[in-house]
Task: structure prediction
Amino acid sequence: MKFTAAKRIAIFIIIGTAVILTLNFFQKEAKGFFYSSSQPFSKMFWQTGGKTADFFGSFLNARNLEKENKELNFKIQDLLFLQNSFQELEKENKHLREAMGIGLQKEFKLELAEIIGKEVNNDVILVDKGLGDGIAKGMPLITSQKVLIGNVVEIYQHYSRVLLISDKKSQLEVAISGRNAAGLLKGSGDFKVFIDLIPKESEIKEGDLVAFRGFLVGIVKGIKRIDVSPFQRAEVSPFFDISNLDKAFVVLNF
Amino acid sequence: MFAKTIIIVPLFYFLSLLQISFLPHFSIFGITPNLIFVAVIFLAFFLPPWSVFSAFFGGFFLDIFSSYFFGFNVLILLGISLFIRLVLKRYVQVAF
Result:
């Protein structure tokens, strides 16, 4: 019995699709296997990509400008974090006076994780730490400057998927420092975020710092007020920059 | 078919690794070009006999490195490549 080219292609598509759909029953194992075997290449590509992007970035702008800018950004983030901490401490101090002291400031237990990839269509990254390293769903991923990147949404034995705060599925209740205002931080994809549901009475301004339970998120860069709505919306410039990042920390005792 | 698979599987594996680990550093306004998508469309136009295999394996590797279920990208890419194949076969004539 002879098969024509069209029949062969049809058989290939039917059998192939059936095999692939069956793989869904062993999704974790199948994906885990590919992540393990690809890890050395992924890490190499991620680091090379970062270096190449840095090189071209600095080449296009000016010598050392990229590096200097990065260092200054780190310093700004450190200072903003300090400012934020001081404001929080000031409030805490008031409560402490009333409550006769509480425990020491919570220390975070961190696990260093390397970023090995980013999904094509979503703001989701893959890190090289998983169940075996004590990672659990919902744990936040932060930078060394305590900048919030996202939180763990899917765990494999040695890998985890982290939903960036800029993903469309991400929602966090954040505070606007020094304004006594809060809102819902939502991602709009492509590394962009905004705060929704900020009460209209709250006075917020461009340049205000956005924080999530002591972690830095970004800076308010634009405010939208609609007369008929009881809420206002703020565009936020996030602090994290995935292209300049290859290591981050998972907060284990969050 | 065997020769095609031997070439296409490593090629698309390499492209998928580039896509998830190298290209995110070069996003323009947060948008990263999809290499696999481009490669599948390119092959569908210029190497039609390879299009189905490339769509199949390209989709498979995209599914591995995404949070979608297995088959999501396979079905999308297969649909696109079969559509291009059909259009080329029925409506396009190349004069030599």
